[in-house]
Design brief:
single chain, about 100 residues, alpha+beta, two-stranded antiparallel sheet, two-stranded antiparallel ribbon, 2 helices, about 25% helix, elongated, binds iron/sulfur cluster
Amino acid sequence: MERSRSTSDETAYQAWLSTRQEDAEGLCRHCGACCGALEDPCAHLVMSPEGRSSCSIYSTRFGLRKTVSDRSFTCVPVRDKLGVSWPGDERCGYKRVGPSL
Ligand code: SF4
Ligand code: SF4
């Protein structure tokens, strides 16, 4: 039977997870390439005048989405796409780190 974690263990674990997530998110250069910036972009992709990408529905982004030309696709976590290629992926910080994420 699995032993339950103490409150301090759980707090430390949550802090570790949070730091790990921030480290991973820091790898993103906000180029927008994984959202189709260099081909047929997702309809929710927003590019700032400085060329920094963001998602207009970030907290609910995963699932069936459409591109600006009305093509359907499924938005997935970028770690699930590391084994495939997309235009501009040579610049992606996640791709450089690879599957250790
Ligand atoms: S391709 Fe990589 S670096 Fe560019 S926005 Fe997507 S995750 Fe970030
Ligand atoms: S919904 Fe997904 S593919 Fe579309 S902009 Fe947001 S993160 Fe990118």
